[in-house]
């Protein structure tokens, strides 16, 4: 039985056939009787590939292979399955019925009552006039109806996207609109290239740390409006420093109104979750159900109710010379004009007073062009997973949907947006059936722009700040700390590191720091595989040492594995078997280390065998033609190998 493997490169025959090298690792002799050929004469051919048209495409015909690949891609791209996958509306619209229409109508109106006050408030977070929040809340909804794959996603401004817009565009309207367009283009390209997997590099702890830090920054950014003072800044520390510098200018009425609004919103939030009547829904009377529905509706519409009431209070002071509250100011009536986003800025549109070209604008946006799309995708995928009921989420399709939605919003002067988790929860609880619920949300936003913008100017800033604070304060993910501590304490390090970095640094640097820290942990675990060492006895009574790594052998871990194997083999002075059952991959560095290990064992005249090595990994190791490289696949063969080596136990070397 042949056990020692020596691989030699040979010139392929003229007929284009070749030996199946994956079989060269096996010690089992499968030579066919009287054939005299290795592997029983099993051979493959690389002479030609038969195309669908019946023509032969040889291995050297690169043009023919490229044409075949393009034909396959074209057929796949225009197949019925792919068209329905990229246009999800074609899947649900043919089955649309009256029940779906009623559910979408109720959900769409409910979400619309939520999005209008939120859009006005989120524009303030982005450092833009309030109207721009509404501009980014209607056209993208139509696009998502056609291309979106999740019924619960209401497209529009979000707290996180607004803060990222402010930190990237610095409150400049032209740059915010261009950021919306370019973010949409990046998202669309990522979708077309199938790069949705990039969001997988943001782990749960990093995502929790980022979201919690963003929540605190947003709350901090709204404290100034509650207190009625001026405090600019982009980071958590900078904003608080400016708040304390201007604390002596606190406005009593703004503070009173802001704190009162926060308390009212929190109380109304509690009311939305209250239930009257028996705990069992089947035992509740009709009156109980009506009362519960009204309490839920009042609690869910709390933002709209509060803004209307505060707007009425602000309107009542219109005859006064000076209003006791700071108001959001005039909002242009009507819909925004449909035009391309600005690709340059005039001197009057920049802070520096100098014109800016397109390249200068892009340069000033910096890393935000990558961070904003990735965070938007992360928010959207989180919503889809939360309401998918276990169904798979197509990240590629969501990238295409939010990319096209942002591109469309940029033509009506909107800033970057994505799916909102809070509005998605309202959408789901309202009984939405399909993405068509977005059309009713869009209708309410359009109506408010056409008829109610003159009254929006009387809304106090403190009330909008209260809406934001009462919403985002619950985004601080304190609840994940305890289960994370119980499961794996080391995961707290990247989570806490991301949280601190995002508070102290700009958000894009904070999230990059968190991802980098997480990658360091991954590389560390890859470099330190768990290795079990056991002293066993073969069926023939020979003692040997079996060493079992629990993962692939790649460059960060091979030196660690080599040192451990060498240390244990010298200490025990026994034949060594490396159990490769869990080694599913290897690289060139691992192959060089295996070559070195086999030479070390050969010099010590100490047997070394590899058990259950995968053929694909074996081919990598054989690429360097290591000496004394022995692989076996059955435990009973170990005694035969030891006999062939004429192994005699030596005296054990003490540690």
UniProtKB/TrEMBL annotation:
What does the UniProt keyword field contain? Membrane, Transmembrane, Transmembrane helix
Which SUPFAM superfamilies does the annotation name? Answer: SpoIIaa-like
The way it spans or sits in the membrane comes to: Multi-pass membrane protein
Gene Ontology BP term (one):
transmembrane transport
List where the protein spans the membrane.
101-123, 129-147, 176-199, 256-274, 294-317, 358-378, 439-456, 462-481, 493-524
Subcellular location per the Swiss-Prot or TrEMBL entry: Membrane
Mainly localized where?
membrane
Q: Where in this chain does the record put each SLC26A/SulP transporter domain? A: 103-493
List the GO terms this entry assigns under cellular component, sorted alphabetically: membrane
Domain STAS, residue spans: 545-627
Q: Which InterPro entries match?
A: SLC26A/SulP_dom, SLC26A/SulP_fam, STAS_dom, STAS_dom_sf
Against Pfam families, the record matches this protein to: STAS (PF01740), Sulfate_transp (PF00916)
The entry's protein name is STAS domain-containing protein
């Amino acid at each position: 039985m042949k056990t020692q493997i020596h691989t030699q490169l040979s010139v392929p025959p003229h007929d284009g056939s070749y030996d199946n090298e994956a079989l060269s690792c096996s010690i089992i002799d499968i030579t066919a009787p009287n054939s005299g050929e290795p592997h029983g004469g099993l051979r493959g051919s690389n002479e030609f590939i038969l195309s669908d048209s019946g023509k032969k495409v040889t291995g050297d015909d690169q043009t023919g292979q490229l044409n075949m690949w393009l034909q396959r891609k074209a057929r796949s791209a225009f197949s019925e399955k792919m068209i329905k996958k990229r246009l999800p509306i074609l899947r649900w619209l043919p089955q649309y019925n009256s029940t779906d229409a009623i559910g979408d109508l109720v959900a769409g109106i409910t979400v619309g009552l939520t999005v209008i006050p939120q859009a006005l408030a989120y524009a303030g977070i982005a450092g833009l006039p309030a109207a721009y929040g509404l501009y980014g809340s209607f056209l993208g909804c139509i696009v998502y109806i056609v291309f979106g794959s999740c019924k619960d996603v209401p497209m529009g401004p979000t707290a996180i996207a607004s803060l990222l817009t402010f930190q990237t565009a610095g409150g400049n309207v032209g740059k915010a609109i261009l950021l919306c367009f370019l973010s949409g283009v990046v998202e669309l390209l990522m979708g077309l290239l199938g790069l949705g997997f990039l969001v997988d590099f943001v782990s749960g702890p990093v995502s929790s740390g980022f979201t919690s830090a963003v929540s605190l920054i947003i709350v901090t950014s709204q404290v100034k409006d509650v207190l009625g003072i001026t405090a600019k800044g982009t980071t958590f520390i900078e904003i608080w420093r400016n708040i304390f510098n201007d604390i002596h200018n606190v406005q009593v009425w703004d503070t009173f109104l802001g704190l009162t609004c926060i308390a009212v919103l929190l109380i109304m939030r509690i009311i939305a979750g209250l239930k009257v009547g028996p705990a069992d829904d089947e035992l509740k009377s009709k009156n109980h159900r009506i009362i519960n529905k009204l309490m839920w509706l009042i609690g869910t519409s709390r933002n709209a109710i509060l803004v209307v009431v505060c707007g009425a209070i602000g309107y009542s002071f219109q005859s006064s010379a000076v209003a006791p509250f700071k108001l959001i100011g005039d909002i242009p009536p009507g819909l925004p004009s449909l035009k391309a986003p600005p690709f340059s800025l005039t001197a009057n549109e920049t802070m520096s007073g100098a014109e800016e070209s397109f390249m200068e604008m892009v340069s000033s946006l910096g890393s935000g062009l990558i961070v904003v799309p990735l965070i938007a995708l992360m928010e959207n995928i989180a919503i889809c997973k939360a309401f998918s009921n276990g169904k798979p989420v197509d990240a590629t399709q969501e990238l295409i949907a939010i990319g096209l939605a942002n591109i469309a919003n940029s033509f009506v002067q909107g800033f970057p947006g994505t799916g909102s988790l809070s509005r998605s929860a309202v959408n789901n609880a309202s009984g939405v059936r399909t993405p068509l619920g977005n059309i009713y949300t869009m209708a309410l936003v359009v109506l408010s722009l056409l008829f109610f913008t003159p009254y929006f100017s009387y809304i106090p800033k403190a009330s909008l700040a209260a809406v934001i604070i009462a919403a985002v304060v619950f985004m601080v993910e304190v609840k994940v700390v305890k289960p994370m501590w119980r499961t794996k304490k080391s995961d707290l390090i990247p989570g806490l590191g991301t949280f601190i970095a995002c508070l102290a640094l700009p958000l894009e640097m904070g999230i990059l720091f968190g991802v980098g820290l997480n990658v360091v942990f991954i590389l560390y675990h890859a470099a330190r595989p768990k290795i079990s060492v056991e002293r066993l006895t073969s069926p023939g009574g020979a003692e040997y040492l079996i060493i079992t790594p629990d993962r692939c052998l790649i460059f960060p871990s091979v030196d660690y594995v080599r040192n451990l194997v060498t240390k244990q083999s010298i200490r025990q002075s026994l034949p060594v078997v490396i159990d490769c059952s869990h080694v599913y991959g290897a690289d060139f560095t691992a192959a060089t280390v295996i070559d070195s290990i086999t030479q070390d064992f050969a010099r010590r005249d100490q047997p070394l065998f590899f058990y259950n090595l995968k053929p694909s990994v074996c081919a990598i190791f054989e690429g360097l033609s290591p000496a004394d490289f022995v692989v076996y696949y059955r435990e009973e063969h170990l005694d035969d190998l030891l006999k062939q080596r004429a192994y005699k136990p030596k005296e054990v070397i003490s540690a």
